[in-house]
Batch of 2 targets.
Target 1
Amino acid sequence: MSIQLHIHSSREAAIRIVAQEIASLVRNKPEAVLGLATGSTPIPLYQELVRLHREEGLSFRHVTTFNLDEYQGLDRSHPESYWNFMHRHFFDHIDIPAANIHLPGSRVAEADMLSHCMAYEEAIRAAGGIDYQILGIGRTGHIGFNEPGSPADSVTRCIHLDAITREDAAPSFGGLDQVPTSAITMGCGTILSARTITLMAFGEGKAEIVRKALREPITDQVSASFLQNHPAASFQLDLGAASAL
Ligand code: PGA
């Protein structure tokens, strides 16, 4: 197993390391392609990157971004849409041009789904591939929204959200019945094509799934376990998330 494991004394310490990695990538390669994630885990990372932009002149002017996923059936302006999340937490506070920002659509008609997903894959390829991919991990072991059963070579597609994933999202949507039932996600294969991958997990609530992803045999029932085979993947954990290892 080549995966690198980093256990930090605090979430803040982990975030600082990841932000520094991204900052040095962007300083060395201003046209870097970043793969971005949503959820509660990366919010402090975006805060730190915004700080580096404001206080240390880190520029995202030539950076291109691709987000992992997007709910289906919400307007972009919906507070829980990932388009809205990313602008609120990150894009509105840095100098990235709007044209360099990519997320899957949030209201893609069924008839257009295949071509929309293939165009997303093609846009990643045309940009030169993802240099640095950020990931969280869900309680189902998902990366992006690659729920159990997602093959290692899966590509961008529309998937049905797992019951556990919808349950976890229910509080922020104000009830389970408000949570979308499907989403477009980069596939496991799309994610694994990134040159460098950093999965962040914080808190004891993530300990058991982190243990499964790292310590058990690779399985499509835990899509994060596919990272074990990636040549440049790391897990950045706090003590809580590492407590079952
Ligand atoms: P979280 O979600 O960052 O809100 O814990 C992680 C995920 O579902 O990938």
Target 2
Amino acid sequence: MPTPDYVSPDHIRARFSRAMSAMYRAEVPLYGDLMELVAQVNQETLANQPAMAKALQRSGGLARLDEERHGAIRVGTAEELATLARLFAVMGMTPVGYYDLSPAGVPVHSTAFRAVHEDSLGISPFRVFTSLLRLELINDAGLREMAAGLLAKRQIFTPKALALIAQHEAQGGLTDSEADTFVTQALETFRWHRQATVTQAQYQRLHDQHRLIADVVAFNGPHINHLTPRTLDIDNVQALMPTRAIPPKAVIEGPPRRQLPILLRQTSFKALEEQVAFTDSEPATLGTHTARFGEIEQRGAALTPAGRELYDQLLDKARAGLEGVPAERDPGRYQALLEQAFAAFPDEAQALRRQGLAWFRYTPTAQGLAGDASGKRLDTLIADGDIQCDPLVYEDFLPVSAAGIFQSNLGDEARTEYGSNANRAQFERALGRPVVNEMEVYENTQRRSLLACEAQLGVKLL
Ligand code: OOG
Ligand code: NI
């Protein structure tokens, strides 16, 4: 039997990411404005910094830049999470990493669905930060029961999407037209619902426990709550946002500005207050719900476990320097504390490499390919210009930053305390599979690049 022509999961993901962006742009026009601003600043940055443009070109980052974005959703049950994992698998997206947000007063734990192979990331780096509500952290038994009851009644996937997921699993792929139908049907799960599934009073009860609980429980699906384009100069976009009537949050999350950006810097604009209808609403008494917002991010070098440990330590040091005053209240001071603390983090590619703080992609240069490299060691090959190395881009998230983004959109209500409640095993049981360790993903990419150098230059590097 001839093998049918299936669309590669990478291309289904690329189509889905584009369709998602178009839908969100129509739903939240401010997102479109932000996209335009980001594209403009990216172009200016590339024009003013030819070295950066060249490095991006080499690493494949340039081609994917305009396509690059992440979204975020929150689901309510293990079954919803497990089915989402199957839906994302159709698009070549694997759960990577475990994030516990409970220490930040947010009763969820999360993972990021994304592609893991560098070739797949080159086609579409689309990622979805996916959180599972943890009803077990809510101490009001009556409320827990009400929430569980509402969640048990809803179906967040269309029948056609479910059928196509099963078909993909059974036959090992989707044809072109099946893939198009899949994208349209899968998109329905992430659409905004103006109609709530609860009465005004029920909404209020959920909301009073935690605004996030109302957001997850009171609607018929996990609407995408933000979609984040990647900028090459976040300070510039942050400064220009007010000129487009987009008010940014006061503090950029993550590391300070550096010569060589590391990990991830993010900032967002405040969630919109949107009209919704409760099941007992008269047209004249529509309510509001605040959940959806916008965010931008600048991605830098992926750090090794040693680099990440140093990052966490320096971030803690900067935050301790605030002595309890929220960073948002004195952004200038926080910026100064960050810069002081991160002076201890090397800010040059070769220093990061020699100290084992970041992951790299190694490529033979034209000179290396033309000459005789045999017998040379990696350091010499790099110093002689036979091998070029570029830091791998960080493809994941940061829990402290994520907490900051969650918090800035939960309003100024008193913070709930849940203590630290990491429970990765429970998350993986709900998901139906283990999450991938992101460090292994970067290590594999680095190793593949070294193997390619070995093959092309006839040297031994590993
Ligand atoms: C997710 C917040 C985390 C990020 O970029 O760190 C996040 C949410 O609010 O659901 O998207
Ligand atoms: Ni985000």
